[in-house]
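Appendix C: a fully annotated inverse folding record. The material below is reproduced so that readers can follow the format used throughout the book. The structure is listed first as tokens, followed by the designed sequence.
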């Protein structure tokens, strides 16, 4: 009996996934009230499932770092992570309309605690991270623009054309040529390459979607790997 259920369960998952995908796809190409209603219901269910999955992932992270604190493995980092999570999460989920007047402005997703954390903690950290990324980008560009062949030479010339053409210098009409070359580079070869990449991505998405609808790919199937609680 258990073996029969193990064989039926993946089949049920495949039927449900394929049916939901076909209904959603047909609702986008056929004007039908029933299909549109079913698509809206599926979207609402997806949002609910994603919300619970995100919440489950958060609690899983807290559990993993709690174990690290108990074992003493990189405990200070885990303590900071859990403390920051609790400081933002607990006041953020409290309903301000049910709290006393003195605390109403401090709790909730738009309260002073969450606003202070995002404005004076997260934003400075993001600014610091992006300022450091400028040096990493410069280092990566220095390594990538080394002329080792025809392809790297073309990339170097294109980068110099765009860089020089983006500089605004008031030296008369002589600077119109670099600006025109920069505009032509961005409008013709860069746009053509971007369109080619987007077409390739679209074809990949189409093939992946067809494989999912036909049941060839089954990412929703049962697998022994990736259990909740496993550390990366």
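Designed amino acids, in order:
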């Amino acid at each position: 009996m258990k073996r029969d259920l193990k064989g039926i369960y993946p089949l049920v998952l495949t039927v449900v996934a394929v049916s939901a995908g076909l209904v959603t796809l047909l609702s986008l190409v056929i004007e039908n009230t029933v299909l549109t209603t079913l698509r809206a219901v599926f979207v609402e269910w997806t949002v609910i499932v994603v919300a619970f999955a995100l919440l489950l992932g958060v609690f899983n992270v807290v559990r993993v770092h709690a174990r690290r604190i108990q074992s003493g493995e990189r405990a200070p980092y885990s303590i900071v992570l859990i403390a920051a999570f609790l400081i933002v999460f607990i006041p953020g989920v409290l309903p301000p309309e049910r709290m006393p007047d003195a605390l109403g402005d401090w709790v909730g997703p738009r309260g002073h605690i969450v606003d202070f954390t995002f404005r004076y903690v997260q934003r400075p950290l993001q600014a610091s991270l992006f300022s450091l990324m400028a040096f990493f980008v410069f280092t990566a560009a220095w390594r990538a623009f080394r002329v080792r062949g025809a392809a790297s030479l073309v990339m170097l010339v294109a980068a110099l054309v765009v860089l020089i053409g983006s500089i605004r210098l008031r030296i008369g009409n002589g600077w119109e040529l670099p600006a025109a070359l920069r505009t032509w580079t961005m409008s013709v070869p860069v746009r053509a390459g971007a369109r080619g990449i987007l077409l390739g991505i679209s074809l990949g998405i189409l093939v992946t979607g067809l494989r999912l609808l036909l049941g060839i790919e089954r990412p929703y199937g049962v697998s022994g790997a990736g259990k909740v609680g496993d550390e990366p």
